[in-house]
Write a structure and sequence with these properties.
- With 111 residues, this protein is mostly helical.
- The chain is 74% helix and 0% strand.
- The longest helix is centred in the N-terminal third of the chain and has 30 residues.
């Protein structure tokens, strides 16, 4: 710490790197969700078309679209300014719920 009590700034540190890494992490997560949704469709249609399989598949796709919306909103916020606002708790909660529900639907398709 400096004499004034503040933490000295590292001149080599780029403050834009953290939002960039976070944006890339959101992109990877949406890609993983896309793969999970595609595998859900493949699993639902593999053994023949059935009503429960189609319902679970449709639910996975709707949940994926919801997660995609939350992720896209966050990616835009990260790209819009060098110091983006904190992730809103309701958006974070929605992302967790979408992800958890997709995992449950995927497990239901496999079983």
């Amino acid at each position: 710490m400096s004499a004034s009590g503040s933490v000295p700034r590292d001149p080599d540190r780029d403050p834009g790197l953290q939002p960039e890494r976070t944006r890339l992490a959101w992109r990877r997560t949406t890609l993983s969700g896309t793969v999970a949704a595609v595998l859900a469709v493949k699993t639902a249609l593999h053994g023949g078309v059935s009503a429960p399989g189609i319902i679970a598949c449709a639910l996975c796709c709707v949940l994926w679209l919801g997660f995609l919306g939350v992720a896209h909103r966050r990616i835009r916020a990260l790209a819009s300014s060098p110091g983006p606002a904190a992730f809103a708790p309701r958006h974070a909660t929605a992302a967790v719920l979408y992800t958890t529900a997709m995992a449950v639907c995927g497990a239901a398709l496999v079983l």
